[in-house]
C-alpha cells in the first residue's frame, strides 16, 4: 500500500475502545439534553473498509436503538437535506425527507462518509451538528448524531472540513486490530479458514483493495467450497475480484502449506481422549522448526471459541483446554498467552480452571 501522510483527528483506538467512547458520549449527551444544553456529535475517522459504519450499526442493534443512515455524498441539492416545500393552506411548509427519524426513543443518526459530500451540503449540515435541527425539522428526543470520515492528505477524494465544522464535533480515529476482528468474525459466523488466515498474517489486512470489508466479502464467497486445495483456480479468481494480488498469493500459499495443519477449535476441544487430542495436534507440534505463528493462531481461536457468549463450555472442553495449556510440545509463551487471555474473562469455568495447581505453576513460572 502506498504511504500517504494522512490527517486524522482524535485518539487512535481499537474497536472496543471506540464503543466505550461512543457509549460514554451518548450518556453525556442524554444528560445535556435533559438539562436543556447542546449535545455534541461524534465523528469517527479511519481508512476505508475497517468497520466504522458496522460498529455504529451493531451498537444501535445491540442497545435496541432506532437507527437512521444517510450518505450525504449522494445528496444533489439542499432539498435532500432540508426536505421539499409544499403548500398547506395559506402557508408554505417543508416536508422532511423520508430518512428523518420521527420516533421519540433513543436512536442514532449516522452520517456516513461526511467529507465526501459537496461543500454546499456540508455547510447545510453545520446547523444540524450545532442544534440537532434544521429550519425544516428537528431530531426527536433521545437521538444521537454520529459521523464517519476518511482522512485528508492522501488518495481519498474528500472535501476538507474547515475549523468551524471540525469544532462542532468530538473526534476519534478507528484503527484495525486483528484480535478484536477475529472475535467479531467468529461471533458473526465468518469462515474459520479466513479467521485463521487473518490471525496468522495480520499484516495482510490493509491494502489498496484489501480491507477487513473486502476480506469478509472474499471469505463469504469461498465459504461453500469445502476443499480449497482442490479449487485453487476458483479461489484465485474470487480473490482477484476483490483483493490485492499480494493478499491472494499469501492466502493461496496459506491454503497449500498451513491450513491443513490447523485443527478446528470445536473439534480439538471435543476430543474424547488424550490420544485423540494429540493426534489432532500432530501436524503442528511435530513440525520443525516450530510454527509459533500457527500455534498462536490456534491458541487465540481456542480462547474465542471457549469464551463465545453464545456458547457454554462443557466439562470435556475444559479438560482439553487444560491439556493444551500443559502440553510441553507447545512453546511456553503461546500457552502463557492463552492462560492470560482466559484470566481476563469473567466466566467462572475458566477462572476455576486457572486455579488448578499445575496451571498456577505455568502462570507464575
TrEMBL record:
GO molecular function ontology, one term from the record: ATP binding
AAA+ ATPase domain segment(s): 38-176
Descriptive protein name: ATPase
Species: Flavilitoribacter nigricans (strain ATCC 23147 / DSM 23189 / NBRC 102662 / NCIMB 1420 / SS-2) (Lewinella nigricans)
Amino acid at each position: 500500500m502506498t504511504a500517504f501522510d494522512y490527517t486524522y483527528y482524535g485518539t487512535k483506538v481499537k474497536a472496543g475502545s471506540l464503543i466505550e467512547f461512543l457509549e460514554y458520549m451518548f450518556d453525556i449527551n442524554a444528560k445535556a439534553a435533559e438539562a436543556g444544553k447542546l449535545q455534541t456529535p461524534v465523528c469517527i475517522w479511519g481508512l476505508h473498509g475497517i468497520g466504522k459504519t458496522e460498529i455504529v450499526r451493531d451498537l444501535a442493534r445491540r442497545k435496541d436503538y432506532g437507527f437512521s443512515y444517510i450518505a450525504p455524498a449522494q445528496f444533489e441539492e439542499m432539498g435532500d437535506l432540508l426536505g421539499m416545500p409544499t403548500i398547506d393552506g395559506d402557508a408554505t411548509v417543508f416536508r422532511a425527507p423520508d430518512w428523518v427519524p420521527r420516533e421519540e426513543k433513543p436512536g442514532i443518526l449516522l452520517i456516513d462518509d461526511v467529507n465526501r459530500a459537496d461543500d454546499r451540503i456540508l455547510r447545510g449540515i453545520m446547523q444540524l451538528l450545532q442544534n440537532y435541527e434544521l429550519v425544516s425539522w428537528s431530531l426527536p428526543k433521545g437521538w444521537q448524531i454520529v459521523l464517519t470520515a476518511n482522512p485528508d492528505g492522501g488518495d481519498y477524494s474528500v472535501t476538507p472540513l474547515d475549523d468551524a465544522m471540525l469544532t462542532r464535533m468530538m473526534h476519534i480515529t478507528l484503527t484495525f486490530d486483528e484480535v478484536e476482528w477475529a472475535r467479531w468474525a467468529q461471533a458473526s459466523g465468518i469462515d474459520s479458514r479466513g479467521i485463521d488466515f487473518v490471525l496468522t498474517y495480520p499484516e495482510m489486512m490493509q491494502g489498496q483493495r484489501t480491507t477487513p470489508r473486502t476480506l469478509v466479502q472474499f471469505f463469504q464467497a469461498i465459504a461453500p467450497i469445502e476443499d480449497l486445495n482442490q479449487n485453487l483456480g476458483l479461489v484465485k479468481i474470487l480473490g482477484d475480484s476483490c483483493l490485492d494480488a499480494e493478499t491472494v498469493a499469501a492466502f493461496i500459499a496459506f491454503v497449500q502449506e498451513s491450513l491443513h495443519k490447523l485443527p478446528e477449535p470445536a473439534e480439538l476441544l471435543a476430543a474424547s481422549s488424550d490420544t485423540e487430542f494429540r493426534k489432532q495436534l500432530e501436524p503442528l507440534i511435530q513440525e520443525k522448526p516450530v510454527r509459533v505463528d500457527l500455534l498462536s493462531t490456534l491458541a487465540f481461536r481456542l480462547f474465542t471459541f471457549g469464551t463465545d457468549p453464545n456458547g457454554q463450555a462443557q466439562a470435556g472442553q475444559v479438560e482439553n483446554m487444560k491439556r493444551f495449556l500443559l502440553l510441553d510440545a507447545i512453546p511456553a509463551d503461546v500457552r502463557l498467552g492463552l492462560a492470560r487471555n482466559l484470566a481476563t474473562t469473567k466466566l467462572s469455568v475458566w477462572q476455576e480452571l486457572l486455579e488448578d495447581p499445575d496451571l498456577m505453576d505455568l502462570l507464575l513460572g
